[in-house]
């Protein structure tokens, strides 16, 4: 049996009370009974609103980041327990925008993944190479290094994580990896997971980077692409719903 796919929206730093409500109501109206798991990852201040609108629906929700610390004097940070209080099922960790603009290291991302699992939250661990790294034929080495740090930290819980392959050059650029390019990297990640867990087939490996209503079906048809992490297209209900419908 193949695993249930996961289509997760990453709203990034977008939205507001009114826009979120309109988007979520449109998603609730159109989502029906999806064959994939569906989630939206909202900015932290809106998680209560999202919980209020989505609780009891087929759509889950999550955060876009979280602290590696449990609690205490970490001004501005949001803990896993706080996310859990607001019903988050997922937390994205190690998004390339966090790695690039906030200096997040492999070790920090691994600590966040570990902390999420300890709190009963599924970390969506992002990995991906930059254009320079791809051109230097470093893609495999980079994604393997990023995932290895997480596997090392979460050890026997490796089968509980979600991985998202997001080539940095494809994020927000309109340049999608071809299905073949994405599948090639996903296969590498699957093999790495297979060496770390007896149930590599349980780990969903999502593709992210300019995934949209037009290209989703061909990406999701690849054997090792188990869903999508959607940025821009997750802010438009019809587009996001079309991607959800393409995942079965
Ligand atoms: P875009 O879909 O806007 O390229 O963003 C992808 C992404 O970074 C999701 O986390």
Descriptive key words:
single chain; 248 residues; alpha/beta; TIM Barrel; eight-stranded parallel β-barrel; 15% strand; globular; binds 1,3-dihydroxyacetonephosphate; triose-phosphate isomerase activity; glycolysis
Task: Tell me what the structure shows.
This protein is of the alpha/beta class. It has one domain (6-242): Aldolase class I (TIM Barrel), CATH 3.20.20.70. Helices cover 41% and strands 15% of the residues. It has 10 helices and 8 strands. An 8-stranded parallel β-barrel has the order 1-2-3-4-5-6-7-8, surrounded by 5 helices. The structure holds 1,3-dihydroxyacetonephosphate. Homodimer.
Compile the SSE list and pairings:
Blueprint: E1 6-10, H1 17-31, E2 37-41, H2 47-54, E3 59-63, H3 80-85, E4 90-93, H4 96-101, H5 106-118, E5 122-127, H6 131-135, H7 139-154, E6 162-165, H8 179-196, E7 204-208, H9 216-220, E8 227-230, H10 237-246
Parallel strand pairs: 1-2, 1-8, 2-3, 3-4, 4-5, 5-6, 6-7, 7-8
The structure holds 1,3-dihydroxyacetonephosphate.
The count of domains is 1
How many helices? Answer: 10
> What is the CA-based Rg, rounded?
17 Å
Give the termini distance in whole angstroms: 12 Å
User: What's the CATH superfamily, by name?
Assistant: Aldolase class I
Order of helices and strands: EHEHEHEHHEHHEHEHEH
Structural class: alpha/beta
- What's the CATH class label? Alpha Beta
Identify the CATH architecture: Alpha-Beta Barrel
Counting DSSP E segments of at least 2 residues, the number of strands comes to 8
Task: Order the strands across the largest sheet as they lie in space.
Answer: 1-2-3-4-5-6-7-8
Q: Please bin the fraction of helical residues.
A: 40-55%
**What is the beta-strand fraction?**
15-25%
Q: Characterize the largest beta sheet: strand count, sense, and whether it forms a barrel.
A: 8 strands, parallel, barrel
Taken from the alpha-carbon principal axes, the silhouette is: globular
Bound molecules: 1,3-dihydroxyacetonephosphate
CATH fold annotation: TIM Barrel
Mean pLDDT: 97
Which regions have little confidence, pLDDT < 50, spanning 5+ residues? none
């Amino acid at each position: 049996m193949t695993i249930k796919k996961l289509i997760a929206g990453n709203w990034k730093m977008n939205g507001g009370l009114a826009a979120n409500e309109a988007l979520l109501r449109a998603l609730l109206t159109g989502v029906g009974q999806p064959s994939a798991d569906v989630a939206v990852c909202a900015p932290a201040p809106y998680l209560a609103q999202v919980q209020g609108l989505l609780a009891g629906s087929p759509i889950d929700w999550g955060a876009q980041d979280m602290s590696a610390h449990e609690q205490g004097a970490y001004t501005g940070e949001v803990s896993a327990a706080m996310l859990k209080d607001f019903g988050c099922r997922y937390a994205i960790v190690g998004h390339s925008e966090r790695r690039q603009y906030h200096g997040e290291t492999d070790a920090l991302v691994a600590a966040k993944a570990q902390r999420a699992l300890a709190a009963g939250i599924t970390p969506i661990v992002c990995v991906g190479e930059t254009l320079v790294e791809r051109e230097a034929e470093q893609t495999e080495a980079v994604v393997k290094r990023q995932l290895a740090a997480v596997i090392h930290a979460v050890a026997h819980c490796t089968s509980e994580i979600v991985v998202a392959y997001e080539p940095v050059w494809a994020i927000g650029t309109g340049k999608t990896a071809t299905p073949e390019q994405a599948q090639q990297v996903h296969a590498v990640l699957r093999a790495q997971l297979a060496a770390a867990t007896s149930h590599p087939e349980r780990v969903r490996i999502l593709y992210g980077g300019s995934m949209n209503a037009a290209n989703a079906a061909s990406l999701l048809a690849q054997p090792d692409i188990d869903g999508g992490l959607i940025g821009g297209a997750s802010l438009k209900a019809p587009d996001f719903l079309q991607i959800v419908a393409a995942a079965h």
